[in-house]
DNA sequence: TGCAAAGCGGAACAGCGTTCCGTATCGTAT
DNA sequence: ATACGATACGGAACGCTGTTCCGCTTTGCA
């Protein structure tokens, strides 16, 4: 799982100048549109905002998921890298896990429709799901294992299910103002705690 | 029999014979298609299976949500009615809540895509979401209150959030075989438990 | 400057939910 | 039995998606 699947072969400078420029324009436009219209924004809207045609869009990002991944790759990587750091600095592994999960929820909740898109079936977003899982499950596993080793939580749950559950809980936070995923995520983690030893 | 003055009052038998027949055919076809293709099955597929045109479909069910509600109304009502019964027969309110939630999860998990459709935004499924909430939140509130009164759980969470969280956790159970929502739901409820008093 | 090769734009295709209206059927009054 | 108005039907058509395809333009090198 070293390399997932970048849109094009070499990422750096193996293309024509205008091609690279358009790709960047597209990324910027997508980032802007995602904020206002969510990640489900029509491809045409993004292409229009970038001032390019549909052909250009699809050449750079064969599937919508590739675009979303490209837009958020940096933030996902940052989130992944925060795991070990929190583990090193946190008072306890469980506290580190709590904070890391909080970061993750923050990320999901601020990206309209991202959580939903990640779990959506057959919408061509499978690659997005896979990317998140590949990148974050190992980190989550590390945090979970440490907390288990410290005797803070039960070993019942694997990282995949935890990530998946958190992601699911974050669905719809943007469309329904009265729904707040955070308390539920807290509860989920609380349910994981090992009953205090006697 | 006993229906001789149609122009008045009743909602049921005031239509033409073929209309009622087609409505039932549509319901049967939908129920069958939902099992195989999920609740997101194309309207055309359902209409074709029922052997009727699209116009007929939309006259009977102005929106897709109306169809889904009509198909599952009975089961939702059954679920709602099970609440008080479980509360009366269960050893403790929390046990009743657990069982009731289990029934609810069973229901959601066996209907492909139902959980996802319920939370889907702007897909015309809002009415579906509203129906579930209207029907089940009161029951859940009753169970929750009883458990709180019995000192079994913390009063942190309102029924809407719990229902919503459970519904969200059930999303994607059908499309991903390795994902199982049940343990997560159990964990969520476990997180609700009041720490044992001294 | 010339000229492949690489890239671009947008028309076109397929599939969706939904609307609309000419036509067929039903129920009844004659 | 027939005629006729109300009711319901079927499916073409519209608008919106994602995606593909191909004639034309731009680029970068000789």
Kindly describe this structure.
Two copies of one chain form a homodimer. The first copy, chain A, has 198 residues and is an all-alpha fold. Chain A has two domains: 17-60, Arc Repressor Mutant, subunit A (Orthogonal Bundle), CATH 1.10.10; 66-192, Tetracycline Repressor, domain 2 (Orthogonal Bundle), CATH 1.10.357. Helix content of chain A is 67%, strand content 0%. Chain A has nine helices and no strands. In chain A, α1 packs across α2 (43-50), α5 packs antiparallel against α7 (126-149) and α5 (93-110) runs antiparallel to α9 (181-192). Chain A is elongated, with a radius of gyration of 19 Å. Residues 1-11 of chain A have low confidence and may be disordered. The A-B interface holds A 113, 116, 119-122, 156-157, 160-161, 164-165, 168-169, 171-172, 175, 178-181, 183-184, 186-192, 196 and B 113, 116, 119-122, 156-157, 160-161, 164-165, 168-169, 171-172, 175, 178-181, 183-184, 186-192, 195. The structure holds a DNA duplex (30 and 30 nucleotides). Chains A, B: Residues 1-21 are annotated as: Disordered. Chains A, B: Residues 42-61 bind DNA.
